[in-house]
Amino acid sequence: MFKFWKKKPKPEETPVPATLATQTSLAEALSAAADNAQLSEIATLPEAGAVASAPAEFAAVEPAAPAAVEPVPAAVTPPPLPPLEEETPPAAETSAPARRSWRERLSGSAFARSLGTLFSRKPKLDEDLLEELETALITADVGISASTELVESLRKRLNRREFADADQLLAALRQALIALVQPIAQPLVMATQHKPFVVLMVGVNGVGKTTTIGKLARRYQQQGLDVMLAAGDTFRAAAVEQLKTWGERNRVPVVSQGSGSDAASVIFDALQSARSKNLDLLIADTAGRLHTQTGLMDELGKIRRVLGKIDAGAPHEVLLVIDGTTGQNAINQVRQFRAAIGVTGLVVTKLDGTAKGGVIFALAKEFGLPVRFVGLGESLDDLREFDATAFVDGLLPGAIGA
After folding, report:
1. Which strands, in side-by-side order, build the sheet including 317-323?
2. Are residues 147 and 246 in the same domain?
3. What are the Low complexity biased-composition ranges (predicted)?
4. Any known ligand binding at 143?
5. How many domains does the structure of the chain reveal?
6. Is residue 318 part of a domain?
7. Is 349 annotated as a binding residue?
8. Which residues contact 306 (CB under 8 A, 6 or more apart)?
């Protein structure tokens, strides 16, 4: 009987679709974005995730993804202005340091040390001073003849009371030494009528002959000359390879043959090649040999005769390389090489090392041959033309007590 009282079920509440909720959230997000002048703040709204997951029908009103929105920079930094022209350092300030002076290079020689010690104080002008000076000159390889002549000249002037103190004696010694070597300070001048100009390098083993050739090639190449090298030291394979290395560095052609080849043949071929290419200079290496080896010394004469078949005047210059540490043995070397092939000029190397320094004075006194170049170090700039005044000033102290 109570069936009509049965309670009717309430109608179920219709759930809000997720898309409608998303649409509502989207509308709220757009409304909030419209009130905010900074578009970048959309990225911070909590509903951003819902917007990203909205269905395709709402794609038309979907805002841009937050990652694509570039934040407004706090401040704009202008690019730096270029430096003014006057602030740029000149090229001269960044160039390589100047090469060392003659005095710096020669200060370690026995000659410089002995004379520096002798005049390190105010010595008394007497016979003892002259005897000490003569001993210092002889032990520095100046030679007995040259040393005796120099000291005897000073003794006569001292007896005439020309020197008031040791400073004047030192100045007189400087003038006498310069006068002794000034005539041999003659740079190499290549005659223009000879093309190519042929320079033959000779010397004993270990004097730095091949290295000197490489430095000469660079020197004359920088002066605008076309240079060729001839590897005539066929007795030593390392010498050929060393000369080829110098040729590669300087981009200079090198004519060579196998080890043990005839040296005269190699140099002959080089001269023919240089003539055909109209080159300016040919520098030919030869095997290092002792001046006492008669057979090898005779080979130098053969080289001269073979070159004479092409050019009667070749070689136009024969440079004998002397090791500055050799001492008085250099006298014998010059004498023998001069007799074998006719030496026309000297190159004295290694004067910056343990050389005593006085051998050039002995050579000047004995032979009077021109000294074309001297070696004062290992770099290219240290092969220098002989300067008599600079050489003497580098050996003597600048003043008493210096």
Report:
1. 254-255, 227-230, 281-284, 197-202, 317-323, 345-349, 371-375, 383-385
2. no
3. 89-98
4. no
5. 2
6. yes
7. yes
8. 264, 265, 267, 268
Q: Clarify whether residues 288 and 173 are in a common domain.
A: no
Tell me the pLDDT of the chain (402 aa) as tens digits.
444 444 445 545 544 444 434 444 444 544 444 454 443 443 444 444 443 444 444 344 444 444 443 444 444 444 554 444 433 333 433 444 567 789 888 988 888 998 889 988 888 999 999 999 999 999 999 999 999 999 999 999 999 999 999 999 999 999 999 999 999 999 999 988 899 999 999 999 889 999 999 999 999 999 999 999 999 998 887 889 999 999 998 899 999 988 788 999 999 999 999 999 999 999 999 988 765 667 778 889 899 999 999 999 999 999 999 999 888 899 999 999 998 889 999 999 999 877 788 999 999 999 999 999 999 988 878 899 999 999 999 999 877 765
Is 351 known to sit in a ligand binding site? Answer: yes
Asked if residue 252 and residue 116 are part of one domain, the reply reads no
d(CA 356, CA 141): 6
- On whether 210 is known to bind a ligand per the annotation, the reply is yes
Q: Which of these three, 184, 211, 228, is where a domain ends?
A: 184
Q: Which domain holds residue 139?
A: 106-184
Does 350 carry a binding-site annotation? yes
Look at the pTM and tell me if it is higher than 0.85. no
295 is in an annotated binding site: no
Assess whether 150 and 204 both reside in one domain. Answer: no
**Do the annotations mark residue 286 as ligand-binding?**
yes
Shared-domain flag, residues 117 and 252: no
Query: In sequence order, which residues have a C-beta less than 8 Å from that of residue 81 and are 6 or more positions away?
Result: none
Q: Is residue 215 marked as binding? A: no
Would you say residue 401 lies in a domain?
no
120 and 173 within one domain: yes
Integer-rounded Cα radius of gyration of the chain: 44
Are the CB atoms for 150 and 177 separated by under 8 Å? Answer: yes
| 244 carries a ligand binding annotation | no
Does the annotation flag 209 for ligand binding?
A: yes
Separation of alpha carbons 235 and 230, rounded Å: 14
The answer to whether the annotation marks 204 as part of a ligand binding site is yes
Asked whether residue 376 falls in the same domain as residue 263, the answer is: yes
Answer for the pair 313, 194: CB distance below 8 angstroms, yes or no.
yes
Q: Is 208 annotated as a binding residue?
A: yes
255 is in an annotated binding site: no
Please report, for the domain that includes residue 357, its CATH number.
3.40.50.300
The pair of three-digit structure tokens given for residue 306, joined into one six-digit string: 């073979």
